[in-house]
Amino acid sequence: MALDSKIPEGPLKDKWTNYKNQIDLVNPANKRNIDVIVVGTGLAGASASASLAELGYNVKTFCFQDSPRRAHSIAAQGGINAAKNYQGDGDSTYRLFYDTVKGGDYRSREANVYRLAEVSANIIDQCVAQGVPFARDYGGLLDNRSFGGVLVSRTFYAKGQTGQQLLLGAYSALSRQIAKGKVEMHNRHEMLDLVKVDGKARGIIARNLVTGEIQRHSAHAVVIASGGYGNVFFLSTNAMGSNVTAAWKAHKKGAHMANPCFTQIHPTCIPVSGGFQSKLTLMSESLRNDGRIWVPKKMEDAKAIQAGTLKGKDIAEENRDYYLERRYPAFGNLVPRDVASRAAKERCDAGFGVNKTGEAVYLDFKSAIVRYGKQEAFVHGNKNPSDAEIQTLGKAAVAAKYGNLFQMYEKITDENPYEMPMKIYPAVHYTMGGLWVDYDLMTDIPGCYAAGEANFSDHGANRLGASALMQGLADGYFVLPYTIGNYLSKDIRTGEIPNDSAEFMAAEKEVKARIDGFMNAKGTKPVDHFHMRLGKLMWENCGMARNAEGLQKGMKEIKALKEEFFANVRIPGVANGVNQELEKAGRVADLMELGELMCKDALERSESCGGHFREESVELDGIQKGEAKRDDENFSFVSAWQWNGESGKQELIKEPLEFKDIAVKQRSYK
Amino acid sequence: MKLLLKIWRQNGPQDKGKMVDYNVDGIEGDMSFLEMMDVLNSQLIEKGDEPVIFDHDCREGICGSCSMFINGEAHGPGRNVTTCQLHMRSFKDGETIFIEPWRAEAFPVIKDLMVDRSAFDRIIQAGGYVSVNTSGNTQDANSLPIPKEDADLAFDAATCIGCGACVATCKNASAMLFTSAKISQLSLLPQGQVEAKERVINMVNQMDLEGFGNCTNTGACEVECPKGISLDNIARMNREYLSATAKGKK
User: Fold this and answer.
1) Model confidence at B166: pLDDT above 70
2) Choices 2.30.30.60, 3.30.1490.20, 1.20.58.100, 3.65.10.10: CATH for A502-642
3) Do A572 and A581 form a contact (C-beta atoms < 8 A)?
4) Which residues 81-110 of B have a C-beta within 8 angstroms of A?
5) How many CA atoms lie within 13 A of A651 on its CB side?
6) Residue A162, H or E segment
């Protein structure tokens, strides 16, 4: 079966405008008779729910948290990109489009990315109108900063809590519709299956996480906005509850999973401190605007630091290796995430790591403090400041920009980052892969849409910083309201979808049987025991660097782990009430199947591109020696995997990628 | 380190509930409080007992899910931290730790340490928004300059994570710090002016309807708030409320 991405005809810059002009609309009276289900209340889900309800549809929204405000978009720190060109530094829609496609290593779909860049500016207008308190300069206008992989300042921010402010904006819009009765909100509910009737998505089976009740919810369309699946690695920057279940159920009902192996390893996270650790904490990429990344030049210094006999701050300037500035003079510390992560791993693998495990590098604000200190003193008329004055003023300036991040770091590590360089290491952060969608953001199940991190569409093999927030809100506020309407215009005569048809009853029965299976398992081990092992084997075999042998080994090990899991897990308590172990068991079972597919996808793609680094595919000589080597001749396609009834046996379907408006080049940040 | 934990166990909203003793060993200073709870729960499950139920998600202090009353303080002994950001290095070997849920009439216990905070959602639904549709037909973001000082104050108020520590701490179980943070954010910004009067009246009414108590200016909420939301916000809300009601809006 070939995939139809339904990209509109015409020049790139006119596609979205033409599309909007030509789609069929639903009249307001008919919208009142149409139901839409939205799963997830992060940026994509909350914004989609609010927008669809404003248009007049009846929306039923689901989240597993106790409130829609707690979805994990809330934890995004650094910012949101938009091609406003307020700084007059040469930004434009085309440049944001170009940076995103290049940053994604030419593995994303041109038309989707261009639309994203096109609507980006409007997102900022919308959020300001909602009362989102972005950072402003003294003239009262919006401030910007820069993120990795770009040469302009287009990132809007609210200290290190941009995700929180944007999500609360979307949550407020959602709350307004809940108050109007246009959104029926189901907190503490989890989607456990997608229901198809006559080939179309017509509803979901959900479990009430308080009472344990299994419910059948019908609708004319279903939007999956349930986020990414980084938790397959157990340790990640995701929330504990983030999971793949909603997307995976859609996959098993026929939606293709696209590029599942494309995982983003974020370079600046707080390193692992012990075997009990449950999650990793990100330090925003915005820190790389001012922080400089380094390891010792001399092996003996590195050894002394690892042994705890030397401190980083005592190493002289000439003995520091600012390896990103050395290797990538054009972008320096602001290279894209995949490049920065690999460079850190390279130094640590060579023995230069700076903590007891040797898996950390420094992120140092010493020179930023001096630079800002001098600048502040100058602005306040002190032309000849003392070192102490420079330090005081500089630290205050750094605190104003990154205070909450520094505080967070200190709470976790018990070290003062104003005095000692931060220690950081790469960690799993985001998944570019996800449900395959066409230009309408519809999966290949009619009526089943995927938005935000849950789809694959915009970031190719590597996402640029501050682009996830942009995509989530673009999908929910500005894309889905049009594309879903176009689909639903054919559904105005359908009438209410009954939730007691044979299809619903069968799906409900299946869900109940699965739950009974977990409850009746006769093992002794908690779910986390298996989740940790899954994470470890994924990190070892399908992590920052991958090779054929490791990937095959990974698939074999997951199969064995899965069997052990079903035989040896113990779920205490009852199914008809709060049971957090039961919730976890279902999620981990799905993550195991996903892990298998990730290894399979990574094995199939024997090129290196973006966050997917195959050790067999590197540049062997020239200026790019040691860098990832992409293979456009053989791999310029989206890998879409079709479920074939058994885990690990999916069939590969290729969507060829065409680049008409952008010259495909080797990605160089040198 | 070894610890004696005294934890509130309650099987459901109607159950009476009681404190139960648990011993844990091998706890390290670098563990977060919730990771210590993970260790306990793993032990309970392996023994065939039911784990202690508690809300948690992001584990980096921003989602507002975690909510434990530890040794008589919301989120425990640390300042400006949520329970998930509290580390075991704050405790001593051999210590006894009391762990209870948020206690307030408007936050009924669901199970063990998990409570129902949906009253907060309903307060926001009563007016914690600007009534602007997401049609994209808004004016350019920079056509409305906002003094940096106002924007920064609005931001500080907007950093509330809705965890409910203020309510749990308050002797009156008042939700005024939470409610006033949202009202302040929007009343400090020009976008929020149009509906300012209806907003403050509706949100305050909803707060009362939910069964939260009144503010008697003790200030304990501000001390225990993990985000340092200032008491000034309550003063601002009261001012807004007085001005709205004095002008005859009801």
Assistant:
1) yes
2) 1.20.58.100
3) yes
4) 81, 85, 87, 89, 110
5) 8
6) helix A162-179
Residue B166 contacts residue B181 (beta carbons within 8 Å): no
> How far does B106 lie from chain A, in Å, by closest CA?
15
The interface predicted TM-score (ipTM) is 0.98
Provide the 10 A C-beta neighbour count for residue A285: 28
Same domain, yes or no: B149 and B100? no
| Average pLDDT of the residues in B172-190 | 98
Task: Provide the pLDDT for residue B135.
Answer: 85
- Encode pLDDT of A387-417 as tens digits: 999 999 999 999 988 888 999 899 999 999 9
Q: Hey, what amino acid is at B186?
A: L
CA nearest B115: which of B74, B65, B154?
B65
The alpha carbon torsion through A367, A369, A375, A379 (nearest 10 deg) reads: -170
Name the average pLDDT for chain A.
Answer: 96
| Confidence band of A49 (pLDDT split at 50, 70, 90) | very high
Decide if B151 and A178 are in contact by the 8 Å CB cutoff. Answer: no
CATH of the domain at B56: 3.10.20.30
In which domain, by residue range, is B190 found?
117-131+143-246
A133 close contact with B: CB closer than 8 A: yes
Could you say which of A65, A86, A407 has the minimum Cβ distance to residue B142?
A86
Tally of domains in chain B: 2
Q: What is the edge-to-edge ordering of all strands in the sheet holding A183-186?
A: A183-186, A58-62, A35-39, A221-224, A448-450
CA distance A94 to A114: 7
Contact (Cβ atoms closer than 8 angstroms) between residue B197 and residue B113 = no
Token digits for A472? 């989530």
Annotated domain spans of chain A = 268-428, 502-642
Q: Residue A424 forms beta bridges with which residues?
A: A361
Q: A609: helix, coil or strand?
A: strand
Q: CA of B6, closest CA in chain A: separation in Å?
A: 21
| Residue ranges of B 200-239 with Cβ closer than 8 A to chain A | none
Residue A312 — pLDDT band, cuts 50, 70, 90? very high
Q: Write down the catalytic residue from A337, A342, A587, A605.
A: A337
pLDDT score, position B249:
53
Q: Do A74 and B135 touch (CB under 8 A)?
A: no
Q: How many alpha carbons fall within 13 Å on the CB side of residue B146? A: 28
∠ CA A11-A16-A18, rounded to 5°: 75
Residues B125 and B97 in one domain: no
Sign, Cα dihedral of A170, A175, A181, A183? positive
